[in-house]
């Protein structure tokens, strides 16, 4: 909310819902700003050890969740 006020945004609704069920909770919307769950694979270029420390199954589960949201 602090960022909404700081940026002077109006007509903003903030919530903490599961994004997969959001359309049934709130009618329609023009835009969504989403903080999606992260698999942590974006740091591989900075930390190559992250490539071998990530297991395939959990990463696939996060990717599936991101697509569902």
How would you summarize this macromolecular structure in one to three sentences?
The protein has 69 residues and is mostly helical. It has helices at residues 2-6, 22-25, 49-53, 56-68.
Task: Describe the protein.
- With 69 residues, this protein is mostly helical.
- It has one domain.
- The protein is built from 4 helices and no strands.
- The longest helix is centred in the last third of the chain and has 13 residues, at 56-68.
- The model has no long low-confidence stretch (mean pLDDT 80).
The helicity comes to 25-40%
Average pLDDT, all residues: 80
When the domains are counted, the total is 1
Query: Which residues form runs of ≥5 with pLDDT under 50?
Result: none
**Helix count?**
4
Question: Into which percentage range does the β-strand content fall?
Answer: under 5%
Could you list some keywords that capture this structure?
69 residues; single chain; mainly alpha; 4 helices
Give the helix/strand layout.
Layout: H1 2-6, H2 22-25, H3 49-53, H4 56-68
């Amino acid at each position: 909310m602090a960022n909404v006020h700081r940026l002077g945004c109006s007509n903003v609704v903030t919530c903490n819902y599961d994004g997969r069920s959001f359309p049934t909770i709130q009618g329609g919307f023009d835009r969504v700003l989403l903080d999606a769950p992260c698999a942590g694979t974006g740091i591989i270029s900075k930390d190559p050890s992250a490539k071998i420390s990530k297991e395939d199954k959990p990463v696939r589960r996060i990717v599936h969740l991101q697509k569902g949201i």
